[in-house]
Design brief:
Elements (H helix, E strand, L loop, with lengths): L1 H14 L23 H14 L12 E7 L4 E10 L2 E10 L2 H14 L4 H15 L6 H6 L16 H16 L2
Helix pairs in contact: 1-2, 2-3, 3-6, 4-6
The structure holds zinc ion (ZN).
């Protein structure tokens, strides 16, 4: 289908980038059959999977915070909804439209910050944004970002940087109000 073709064209540049260093934790998923998949293939797969996933993409009943984010350079629009209680993110979800990178990044972010304290989530948003802006993170810092570390190579694709950081800036703005 058309959407699939568009998606693979969009993610293709990621396959030509080599990670400077492997993550300590190697994801098992993506290694299918006996064909060896490189780390960048696994990451491309992971990003594609998240961009199609609807697990975190829905309205959130009882949301205590709602924050809209917009990236006019690509047309990405998200509404992030959070349930924050006692300084903790009890639940999170999003709705919106946008490119595969923006959608995948938002889904990965929600997986990461659900259950975390407001303080920890803001720290993770800082880390992620620094990574995408080209700062070299330590192994420990990359591990803190879990699957979202798969987006590291976006830092070498200036046109996609705003797509990747949109949801994280939106989260940070939302949590500042807490
Ligand atoms: Zn985008």
């Amino acid at each position: 289908p058309r959407a699939e073709r568009y998606l693979s064209r969009e993610l293709l540049p990621l396959q030509h980038e080599r990670r400077r260093r492997p993550l300590a934790r190697s994801p098992e998923r993506g290694q299918e059959g006996d064909a060896f998949m490189s780390l960048s293939d696994i990451y491309t797969e992971l990003i594609a999977e998240h961009s199609r996933s609807t697990e975190n993409k829905h309205e959130l009943a009882g949301a205590t915070i709602k924050e809209r984010g917009h990236n006019p350079s690509c047309g990405d629009e998200i509404t992030l909804e959070l349930i924050v209680e006692d300084g903790k993110i009890k639940d999170a979800a999003f709705t919106g439209v946008g490119c595969a990178i923006s959608q995948a990044s938002t889904s990965m972010m929600i997986d990461l910050v659900k259950g975390k304290s407001v303080e920890e989530a803001r720290h993770l948003a800082d880390l992620f944004i620094s990574m995408i802006k080209g700062k070299e993170l330590t192994e420990d810092e990359l591990e803190e970002l879990d699957e979202a570390a798969a987006l590291e190579n976006i830092s070498t694709m200036p046109a996609r940087v705003k797509c990747a950081v949109l949801s994280w800036h939106t989260l940070d703005t939302a949590l500042k109000k807490e």
